[in-house]
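pls design
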């Protein structure tokens, strides 16, 4: 052991000082191992210790282990063997290491020291199919592996994240009070923690959260772009519009982030930082997993995918500059009514945000139907009400909608959600038409509108696709007027006029 130090207060004393005290009333000094003490891991350790968990911590950097052990009144382990030895069976070890190979490495080093009935929790942004693989592999030794989607960044880890837990219910049960205690609170005071389902469902739901995060961010970015570059508003006016919206039906953590962005000035130049930032957005891959999953499960989630494509497009900075110089910019001088555009954007953004959430829940429903995780969409929506990046006032009506329609195919059947779409309908069309007419790309606004229009169109264009498939591949089609599958004897190609 590197260090063992009594915490600043004993569990009972700490109990009386903390909001999560309910937990201590039922559990005494639960022991948890924590591996990976980067910013997220260290903050989570402080949060766990602050709610009475007795931690055995380990990080590859010994000085970090010592510091976090001292901070949390826990035990610092010199290696994973010592960490496992310091935990009473059945052991539970929480991993906060980067997704991918580091998770496999941590599991490989830990495995020889664990036994039947022990559990590993992966709290990183892991790819859900990796989680499923690890679960199956560790199950051979009777070791439970649980994937936790943890949202809220470093601050959330310290003060209260949203936690989407996936895995074995019995293995998780003893720890539920602790995780409820450390989680964020929803506006009604309930904990933003839920076991969303079995298997890899926790990490899958977190990926969908991130897909929605990408799309909501893209919509905000398009809105700002339209205000600033199309309507030509100055920063102060645009900022005030965002600030006003952030207090109304559009209130959300991401809107608050946008207002903070617009309020920030460069200390050296005094100019707004936003105007100095290169228009290229990076990504770590979770949005792409979600878009891939939509294709894998055959779900229409165009705006979740468009938000990823939009980031890819943003990355082509040099090419965009070169083509703009070659062909001229697509953007044309604004020929519309600035105030009408400003008025249209608020309901349009709200309606588009609803459409994005609907896509996310359709994807969860379809994946769950195939994987059999037993995800209750209401739990997911309720967890997302606080602590996570996509928390917003929309999650409350979405949770209500999920109770009836969350198992698919779309929560847009819900009357209250549909009313939000309906209220924004004309404005949304106006925004897209104005943007397209002036050469401004609006992939998120456009795709979300097309998605809703597609959903509410009883007869789409796919009759022509079905027919062409039969022409060239004899794939068959179904008919409106009689049951069964059919082929036609198609006419030969003859381009002569018929009229
Ligand atoms: C969260 C965030 C977090 C991270 C994103 C960023 O829920 O706390 O989603 O996980 O900020 O993964 O993703 P990109 O780097 O891909 O934008």
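designed seq:
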């Amino acid at each position: 052991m590197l260090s063992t130090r009594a915490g600043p207060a004993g569990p009972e004393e700490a109990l009386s000082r903390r909001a999560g005290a309910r937990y201590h009333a039922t559990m005494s000094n639960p022991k948890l191992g924590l591996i990976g003490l980067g910013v997220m891991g260290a903050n989570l350790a402080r949060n766990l210790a602050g709610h009475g968990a007795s931690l055995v911590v380990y990080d590859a950097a010994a000085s970090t282990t010592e510091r976090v052990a001292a901070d949390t009144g826990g035990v610092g382990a010199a290696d994973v063997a010592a960490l496992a030895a310091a935990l009473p069976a059945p052991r539970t070890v929480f991993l906060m290491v980067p997704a991918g190979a580091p998770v496999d490495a941590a599991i490989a080093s830990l495995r020889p020291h664990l036994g039947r009935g022990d559990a590993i929790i992966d709290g990183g942004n892991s790819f859900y199919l990796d989680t499923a693989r690890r679960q199956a592999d560790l199950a051979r030794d009777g070791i439970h592996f649980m994937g936790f989607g943890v949202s809220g960044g470093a601050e959330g880890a310290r003060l209260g994240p949203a936690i989407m837990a996936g895995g074995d219910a019995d293995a998780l049960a003893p720890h539920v009070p602790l995780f409820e205690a450390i989680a964020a609170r929803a506006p009604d005071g309930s904990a933003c923690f839920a076991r969303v389902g079995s298997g890899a469902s926790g990490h899958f739901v977190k990926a969908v959260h991130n897909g929605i995060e990408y799309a909501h961010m893209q919509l905000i970015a398009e809105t700002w772009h339209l205000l600033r570059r199309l309507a030509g508003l100055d920063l102060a006016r645009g900022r005030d519009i965002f600030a006003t919206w952030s207090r109304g039906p559009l209130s959300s953590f991401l809107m608050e982030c946008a207002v903070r962005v617009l309020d920030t000035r460069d200390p050296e130049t005094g100019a707004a930082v936003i105007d100095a930032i290169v228009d290229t957005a990076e990504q770590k891959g979770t949005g792409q997993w979600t878009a891939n999953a939509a294709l894998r499960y055959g779900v229409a989630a165009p705006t979740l995918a468009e938000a990823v494509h939009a980031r890819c497009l943003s990355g082509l900075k040099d090419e965009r500059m070169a083509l703009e110089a070659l062909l001229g910019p697509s953007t044309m001088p604004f020929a519309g009514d600035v105030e009408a555009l400003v008025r249209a954007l608020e309901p349009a953004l709200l309606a588009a945000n609803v459409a994005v959430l609907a896509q996310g829940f359709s994807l969860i429903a379809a994946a769950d139907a195939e994987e059999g995780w037993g995800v209750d969409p209401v739990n997911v929506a309720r967890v997302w009400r606080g602590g996570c990046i996509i928390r917003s006032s929309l999650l409350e009506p979405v949770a209500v909608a999920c109770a009836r329609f969350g198992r698919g195919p779309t929560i847009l059947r819900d009357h209250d959600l549909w009313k939000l779409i309906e209220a924004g309908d004309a404005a949304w069309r106006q925004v897209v038409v104005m943007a397209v007419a002036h050469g401004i790309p609006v992939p998120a606004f456009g795709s979300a509108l097309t998605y809703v229009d597609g959903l509410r169109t009883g007869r789409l264009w796919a009759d022509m696709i079905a027919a062409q498939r039969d022409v060239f591949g004899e794939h068959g089609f179904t008919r409106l007027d009689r049951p069964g599958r059919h082929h036609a004897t198609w006419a030969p190609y003859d381009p002569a006029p018929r009229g």
